[in-house]
Amino acid sequence: MNEPVVLKGFGKGIAVILDSSCDFEIICDHFKQKVINGKNFFSGYEIPIQFIGRRLNSYELQKLIEIMKTFGGVHDIIFPWDEISFHNLLSTAGESAEDIKEEQLNAKIHKGTLRSGQVITSESDLIIIGDVNPGAEVISKNNIIVLGALRGIAHAGISGNKNAVVFALEMDPVQIRIANIIARAPDEDNKHEKGVAEIAYIENETIVVKPVTQF
User: Where does the Septum site-determining protein MinC N-terminal domain lie (predicted)?
Assistant: First the structure.
């Protein structure tokens, strides 16, 4: 890849192609310049964004979002699920790839750690860029994605959607609920290895949690 960052339009959104081998600080510098040079391209109330070519952790994703908001005038960012790899998770949970491509699934994004007593709700998919601490709760009609540690309560598919999933980079919840089915935190013997991203979904009317590599 000749350039650390390449921008391409798709539909009404932007695909950001990142060099997987480049230092992240160099990525940020080039991305910032791209955003400044194309400010009119980025400006808008809601901008669908797709990051390609590089696996981003929660800090890196947050940094790129901050650059877009600070230097590009972006107010809200939408991750179109049918355009990124999470649609594979959804299709395995029970929806066909064709169904997902036909739907335009948008996401509500909350940036920052949720502390005890805080509750975030969403009428669509919900992305938390940060941790969900014990005593905090995240609620969504569709899927919940936590780019951090899930240690509180997550309720996905509150409208009865049993195809919804809960994904976290670190899965250690007090309780997970999908539609009307509830699963509590596993005991120490049944917990998976720490630091492994996991996903919870319904299988045979029971919530199961698996490392995302096995999903």
Answer: 5-71
